[in-house]
Specification:
473 residues, alpha+beta, Dna Ligase, domain 1, 3 domains, 5-stranded mixed β-sheet, 23 strands, 30% helix, UCP005522, Circularly permuted ATP-grasp type 2 domain-containing protein, CP_ATPgrasp_2
């Protein structure tokens, strides 16, 4: 066989089946195309009934779409997962220590390990958080770490999501759908469970409730409302946790404490899992014209009467420019070498690196520092001459607004398509909870690029999802 360009997670270079996929491969081979097609149709029926959709901004045809789902799961061995788990835990611990330092002594800046300008002049930095320590010293309680794989032992962190990471509802619903569709496979394989995530989320939120809380804390999920692209998830998680789903107008502050309006009168709120951005949290502290937040909320937070999850100002730690310094951040706070590697990244503020980038745009990936969802990026190999010319002008005008990375050889997984089973590129977003302890759900959300040859896995850009099976020993 000719040498493959991409690492195939199911097949060895000689075409034999990799051990973690052996049972699944036998099952797939035994399925006629009609059976897989029926499974895909049944899965779509399940998701349509549940109303699992996402928003596509700027699409005139439809703003809401069903998440495409692939019925062939991704498999990760127990040994592979243990290594990932250690690397993820190391990373989230260091990033929380970094956040505490930035809003207190700023030792890492004083030591010259990260440029002051990168922090102080960054729009994600929240000066209102200076000198304040949240319960347990934890700033980011719910984290999604985006990983890509390029070889049997090669995993890279693509980015850290420490503000309001989304996608966990898809992980849970993907698993529920697969357990309904192929229960026989779960009997053949020891797959680590993910369904205890809502319970673990509640435990994490309870563990960071204010010291002033007596008894069981009252937890709410704060949503911008039904028009938000992730509203399904906000509603889903509130329901699964047994928490109340609120909008800003459902809450009010009185005597430095937060209350929820109910038919039985005001009810004290202790923990707010907020799914709205920093700027809109409190019109008295941040954007004065915000209609989504709660006036006086930030003062109640700083007074220690309510906990905000995640804390305001966490965005500075998942800024794409700060991302390039995470290996140094890990070494600075933990005195350890990073277990998981960053993707090599070019700094466009450096004259030599910028010159290299502009000469090689056709082979590189350009991302906005504060971009997300696959928007505002250039994938060099899939770009046109006109697109590259536009990004050349953008980088020259604002070099600090972009990071640039090589086009990674993302691994592939077998995926059921209209033409049968074909390899498609994937990434992985494991979900981490940080409170009284670090809890990492085994697996996470696998996103798959459904277009042949595409490396962009975002649902907003035509990607779908797969269930992720971490095997137990």
């Amino acid at each position: 066989m000719s040498e493959k360009k991409y690492f195939d997670e199911m097949l060895n270079a000689d075409g034999s089946i990799r051990e973690p996929y052996r049972i699944l491969a036998d099952w797939v081979q035994a399925q006629p195309k009609s059976a897989l097609k029926q499974l895909a149709a049944d899965a779509e029926t399940i998701f349509r009934r549940l109303g699992i959709t996402f928003a596509v901004y700027g699409d005139d045809a439809s703003t809401e779409r069903l998440i495409p789902f692939d019925v062939i799961p991704r498999v990760i061995s127990a040994a592979e997962w243990r290594r990932l788990e250690k690397g993820i835990e190391q990373r989230v611990k260091a990033l929380n220590m970094f956040l505490h330092d930035l809003y207190h002594n700023q030792d890492i800046i004083r030591a010259g390990r990260i440029p002051e300008k990168l922090i102080i002049q960054n729009e994600a930095f929240c000066p209102q958080m200076m000198g304040f320590t949240p319960p347990r010293g934890i700033y980011s309680h719910i984290i999604g770490v985006d990983l890509v794989r390029t070889g049997p032992d090669d995993f890279y962190v693509l980015e850290d999501n420490l503000r309001t990471p989304s996608g966990v509802s898809y992980m849970l619903e993907d698993r529920e759908a697969m357990m309904h569709l192929v229960p026989d496979l779960f009997h053949k394989l020891k797959v680590a469970p993910v369904e205890n995530y809502p319970e673990n989320l509640r435990r994490t939120l309870e563990s960071v409730s204010p010291d002033t809380c007596d008894g069981a804390p009252n937890i709410v999920v704060l949503t911008p409302g039904i028009y938000n692209s992730a509203y399904f998830e906000h509603s889903f998680l509130a329901d699964q946790m047994g928490a109340t789903l609120c909008e800003g107008h459902d809450l009010f502050v009185e005597n430095g404490k937060v209350y929820m309006r109910t038919t039985l009168g005001p009810e004290r709120v202790h923990v707010i899992y907020r799914r709205i951005d920093d700027d809109y949290l409190d019109p008295l502290t941040f954007k004065p014209d915000s209609m989504l937040g709660v006036p006086g909320l930030f003062d109640a937070y700083r007074a220690g009467n309510v906990t905000l999850v995640n804390a305001p100002g966490t965005g500075i730690a998942d800024d794409k420019a700060v991302y390039t310094y995470v290996p140094q951040i890990i070494e600075f706070y933990l005195g350890e070498k990073p277990i998981l590697k960053n993707v090599p990244t070019y700094n466009c503020s450096n004259d030599d690196e910028r010159a290299y980038v502009l000469d090689n745009l056709a082979d590189l990936v350009v991302k906005e520092v504060h971009g997300s969802g696959g928007y505002g990026m250039l994938v060099g190999p899939a770009s046109t001459k006109k697109m590259r010319a536009e990004f050349t002008d953008k980088i020259k005008a604002r070099p600090d607004n972009y990071i640039v990375q090589p086009t990674l050889a993302l691994s592939t997984c077998p995926t059921f398509t209209d033409k049968g089973i074909s390899p498609r590129h994937v990434d992985l977003r494991p979900f981490v909870l940080v409170g009284d302890k670090v809890r990492i759900t085994p697996g996470g959300l696998t996103r798959v690029a459904l277009k042949p040859g595409s490396l962009v896995v975002n649902s907003s850009q035509g990607g779908g999802t797969k269930d992720t099976w971490v095997l137990e020993d």
